[in-house]
Specification:
The chain contains 10 helices and 16 strands. With 389 residues, it is an alpha/beta fold. The longest helix has 31 residues, at 269-299. The mean pLDDT is 95.
Length: 389
C-alpha cells in the first residue's frame, strides 16, 4: 500500500525521504506475554513530504488495520511533571475562553484524564468520546463517555469547547477528519477548537528517530497544521509550542469563509524542504552513534534499562532490538506493569524493580522527565549512568 495523494491537500507531489524497516504496527496496545509481543505484525514506514502543503506522513500506512478498539494504555497522569503541564494549559484555556460552567467535549479522550481535569477546574459538563475508553477509569458524575468514534451526530451535543489531544497524528485521513468536525457543528454553534499534537520540526531538527513509529502516520509542523485548519473551515486564534517544544498547540474557531490569518510560527513549505534535507544528511550519524553506544554497553556486560514506556520506547528500540541489550522498560503507570513492548518483547516494570536490579545504565525516553526520574532513582538508592533523549 503506497499512498500517492497527500491526506491534507490531495496533491500528488509527494517525495519519500526516510524509511524504517519492520516497525511494530502497535505501540500502546496491552500485550500480556513476550510471545504475544513478538508476534505483533511489523510493517515498513516511509515518510513522505508533500511539496505543496509541507505535510509529512507515512506513505505505507495500512488504513485497513484496527488501531483504536483493541484496548491501549496511554495514561501519563502518574507523572507530577506531566500533571503540572496539563494543569497549566487547562487553567490557561479556561481563563482565556471563559469556560467556567460550560460544556466541554474531548475527541479521543483515552482514559479520560484531560476531560476530567478540565471539568474539575471549570465545572459544567464534560464529554469524552473514544471507542477504547475503559469504564471505571473516571468516577466524576459530571462526565459522560461515548465508547465510539466521533461522528456528525455528536454535533447535537452543542459543546462550547472541543479538544483533541494526541489523536490527529494517529489519523491518516486528516482532511476528512477536520472536515467531519466542522460539518458536525450547527451554524449557530461556534465552539473553541483545541488540538495538541507532536510537532515534526523538532523531530527533523534533532533527528529524533524515537518519535517516528507506525501508529503515528501523520506528522505536522506549524505551517502544515495551519494550512489544514484554514482549508477545512477554521480561523486560527493562536498556535504555539510547549513541553520543551515537543508539542504543537492550536486554538481555532469555525468560520463560514476560508480564513487567511496566519500565525507567526508557521514556516513556509520552502523552509520545511530545507529541514528535510538537513535531516537526511544527519540521521544516519545519529542512528550510528546510538548503535555504537549500545553495542559498547553490551560488550562491557552492563545492565541497561529504558525508562519511559509507550510509543517513544517502541520507536527507539525498533532500531536496536537486534542487539538484545534491553530486557526491561520502566514506567510509573501501574496499568503497564507486567505487560510487554509490542514487537520488541521487553517487559514493563515499576520503578521499584530497580532497587534490586541495580542497572548500570538508564536511558530516559523523554528529557522533560529527567529531574523527576533522577530523584526517584536516587531516593531508591539507584545511581546509574543516565542517557537522555
Amino acid at each position: 500500500m503506497l499512498h500517492s495523494h497527500c491526506p491534507c491537500c490531495n496533491e500528488r507531489n509527494i517525495e519519500g525521504f526516510f524509511t524504517i524497516k519492520d516497525a511494530p504496527i502497535f505501540s500502546l496496545v496491552t500485550v500480556k506475554s513476550r510471545e504475544e509481543a513478538l508476534s505483533v505484525p511489523r510493517k515498513d514506514i516511509e515518510l513522505g513530504f508533500c511539496n505543496d502543503c509541507g505535510f509529512i506522513f507515512n506513505r505505507l500506512f495500512d488504513t485497513s488495520i484496527d488501531y483504536f478498539t483493541m484496548g491501549y494504555e496511554d495514561q501519563q497522569g502518574f507523572s507530577q511533571t506531566f500533571m503540572e503541564y496539563l494543569t497549566r494549559i487547562s487553567k490557561d484555556l479556561i481563563q482565556k475562553y471563559s469556560l467556567e460552567g460550560k460544556t466541554l467535549l474531548e475527541i479521543g479522550c483515552g482514559k479520560g484524564d484531560f476531560i476530567n481535569l478540565l471539568n474539575e477546574l471549570a465545572g459544567g459538563k464534560g464529554i469524552g468520546i473514544d471507542p477504547a475508553y475503559e469504564e471505571g477509569r473516571q468516577t466524576n458524575p459530571n462526565l459522560t463517555f461515548y465508547k465510539e468514534f466521533y461522528s456528525k451526530k455528536h454535533g447535537e451535543l452543542e459543546a462550547d469547547f472541543i479538544c483533541c489531544r494526541h489523536t490527529l497524528e494517529h489519523i491518516h485521513n486528516t482532511y476528512e477528519f477536520l472536515s467531519l468536525i466542522r460539518a458536525s457543528l450547527k451554524p449557530a454553534n461556534k465552539p473553541i477548537i483545541f488540538f495538541e499534537i507532536p510537532q515534526i520540526s523538532r523531530i527533523l531538527d534533532i533527528q529524533a528517530f524515537w518519535d517516528i513509529y507506525y501508529e503515528h502516520c501523520s506528522y505536522f509542523s506549524a505551517g502544515s497544521l495551519g494550512r489544514l485548519f484554514r482549508r477545512t473551515g477554521y480561523e486560527i486564534l493562536d498556535m504555539r509550542l510547549d513541553y520543551s517544544d515537543q508539542y504543537l498547540l492550536i486554538e481555532a474557531t469555525p468560520v463560514e469563509e476560508q480564513s487567511d490569518i496566519e500565525i507567526d510560527i508557521e514556516e513556509s513549505v520552502g523552509e520545511q524542504i530545507e529541514r528535510v534535507k538537513a535531516f537526511n544528511v544527519k540521521i544516519n550519524e545519529q542512528l550510528g552513534e546510538w548503535r555504537s553506544r549500545l553495542m559498547a554497553l553490551k560488550n562491557q556486560g552492563k545492565k541497561a534499562v529504558v525508562w519511559g514506556g509507550g510509543s517513544k520506547s517502541v520507536g527507539f528500540l525498533t532500531n536496536f532490538a537486534d542487539l538484545e541489550l534491553i530486557d526491561y522498560v520502566v514506567d510509573i503507570n501501574p496499568h503497564m506493569e507486567n505487560n510487554f513492548i509490542p514487537g520488541i518483547g521487553c517487559k514493563y516494570v515499576q520503578p521499584s524493580f530497580l532497587k534490586d536490579y541495580q542497572p548500570e545504565t538508564v536511558i530516559i525516553m523523554n528529557g522533560v522527565y529527567k529531574g523527576e526520574i533522577t530523584k526517584s532513582m536516587h531516593d531508591m538508592g539507584v545511581f546509574p549512568e543516565i542517557y537522555t533523549l
